[in-house]
Amino acid sequence: MPYHSTISKLILALLASFVVIYSVPAESKAVRTHTYQIKINPELTYAAVNICFDGKVPEYLIVDYRKATKNLIQIPETKDGYIEFEGRYWKTKSLADNACIDYKVNISDHKRKRRANVKNEALSYFSENTWLWLPEKIKSDEEVEIKFDLPESYRVSAPWKMMDTKGKHFVVGKLPQDWGFTVVIGEFDLRQVSLQSGGKLNIAIMDNVKQKDNLVQWVKDTGESLGRYLGKFPLDQLQVVMLQSRKSYRSPVPWGEVKRGSGFGIILVVASERKIEDFYRDWTVTHEFGHLLIPNVKYRDIWLSEGLASYLQYVLMAQDNHLTHKQTWQRLYEGFERGLRGTVSTSKEQLVDTVKNRRRGGGSGRTKRIYWSGAVYFFLADIQLREKTNGEMDLPKLLAKLNQCCIQSTQEWTGVQLSKKLDELSDSQIFSQLYSQIAYSYEFPDFESAYAKLGITAKEGQVKIETQTGQALRESILLNPKMVDSTRQEQVGER
């Protein structure tokens, strides 16, 4: 065999082995599971916590209450190094790999006092974390597993991924815990409901809440509505806590709140004695669910988050036939008018300053301007998206893209960052341009021109809809996604 031929074959063989070696896919990094074993006594006065880390220990453990240390009954103990205490922070990076910590903490301040006609005494409600030290950051190759040792009849509601049906085994989410979360421990009704649109609702209903089955169905229907709007429900699991209102209010849902610490949770205060039809006619729950479609924004730009929720609260109700189309445009018009009046009372402020001044203590005029300026922002963007793309892109499709990339983001977004991301996802400059026009304006954004484009006018506060003008665009915004799909299928069949 010629010399050069032998050398060539050797080189080819070496190259082939090189390709084989370097084409083997790298093994995925194994997930390390840090475990928490939490024993709580039947009287709900203390929690004994055992933490064992898998491999390297997180640098810090924290709670979101700066005076939480005063609740400690037993100072944290470990045989694997030492802990430095810095207020609500425990500096743990000096601990050895696979270290364990034990501590005991007083939780009696959170126990609900017995009230007349209330069955359960055994109930603790934690609206802030004053007792459970968790890793400041949970890295991509880490997870935190929590198991509760409780009496058989007790349950736990938390915003974490529930691994059983009794609420005693969880995996903590990676969102920052100091964004705030709610935990309920004790005797209450806990139901896990699966949605057709994907995802599960972990619904905690306090014992004094009436017509539980009806209210669970109402919350489930709202989840399905959001899932249809987006194409699927935006989360794998969502905590929902229902509390009975202590006073009588005009609304059947006088208060609601979304929390994002360590996972997503919605708190609803309900007047459960009201007729179930009243709940379906109320906008509060659709407003709170609407918040789930946008990542956490800095307070300066809270008008974007509240605006999207305010816009969607009526759109979702229309798509589920709880409002007629005319009623929907009427309610949006009335909301925009409230925002306009709120802007008149704060006309010396740019919108971003109105937000700051509201935090310092402002009147309802500021609140109305904040909520409804944001609603106009998304209303105008929805119209412009549909027009620019001839209906190929719209707000629901764009929010679905945002959900895929960013809803679990651990950062707080500025309005500029969010608008640029929406521009990027929609291949447009619609959102940045609208942001500049609205955020730094002293005036309420023009919604009447958009209404005119949709064939909607108003006289003496009452909207009138022209049948032909803007009909296709107008109806596309409020049309139930199921109806859109069936229409498309019919068109395909006709072809």
Instruction: Tell me the distance between the termini.
Output: 68 Å
Can you tell me the number of structural domains? 3
Helix content: 25-40%
Major sheet description: 7 strands, mixed
Radius of gyration: 27 Å
Q: From the helix content, strand content and strand pairing, which structural class follows? A: alpha+beta
Strand content: 15-25%
Q: Give the tally of β-strands.
A: 21
Name the average pLDDT.
90
Parts with pLDDT < 50 across at least 5 consecutive residues: 14-26, 484-495
If strands are numbered along the chain, what order do they take across the biggest sheet?
A: 4-7-2-1-10-13-12
Shape: globular
Number of helices: 14
InterPro entries: Peptidase_M4/M1_CTD_sf
Protein name: Peptidase M61 catalytic domain-containing protein
Description:
- It comes from Aliikangiella marina.
- InterPro entries: Peptidase_M4/M1_CTD_sf.
- This is Peptidase M61 catalytic domain-containing protein.
- By secondary structure, the chain is α+β, with helices and mostly antiparallel strands.
- The protein has 3 domains: 143 residues, Immunoglobulin-like, CATH 2.60.40.3650; 106 residues, Neutral Protease Domain 2 (Neutral Protease, domain 2, Orthogonal Bundle), CATH 1.10.390.10; 196 residues, no CATH class.
- The protein is built from 14 helices and 21 strands.
- The longest helix is centred in the last third of the chain and has 25 residues.
- The C terminus is likely disordered.
